[in-house]
Amino acid sequence: MDPVTTSESVRPYHHGDLRRAILGAALDVIAVEGPAALSLRDLARRAGVSHAAPAHHFKDRTGLLTAIAAEGYGLLATALDAAGDLRDAGVRYVRFAREHPAHFQVMFSPELLRGNDLELTTARSLAGGRLRAAVSALPPEGRGADTRLAGVAAWSLAHGFATLLLSHNLDGQVGEEDAEETFHALTEMLFRSPRP
Fold this sequence. Notes:
71% of the residues lie in helices and 0% in strands. It is mainly α. It folds into two domains: 13-58, Arc Repressor Mutant, subunit A (Orthogonal Bundle); 62-190, Tetracycline Repressor, domain 2 (Orthogonal Bundle). The longest helix has 21 residues, at 61-81.
């Protein structure tokens, strides 16, 4: 018998990164059952660790959900960072929601979060800054005189579309069409940016 295989087969189950394992298990639960189904004790059982282990990283359920939201805003900021213009930023927002539905659900449920958490507020500000920059880059005729309201309109369109998409309320309207292409067409109707 191979000694390496033997050594690995008797070694106790151990996480190299328990924090990441708990976050991953929590995201799986949220994606299927929603955030109300989260229990640190259940997540510990899923991860194969003591019921107290998750509390070392997150303190409590609110801390865990806050960490998920902060991670989500960081991922969203990274996705938006590569946007070429406002339409592309909107498409990337919708793509983020489709690829990270559990993050997306938690990020916009402030009643579940520790709102003054530094990691959360920093990541949220970074993502918001990316959206504001995309709106500000539009010429005045494409956004109107009030950049702030144009930003609210752009965010409302992207967030509303993503939310309706994730809740399957657009299944009949979008059907087999590519959701990102459909969203791009919607932004083209409402926000004009200069063609190269």
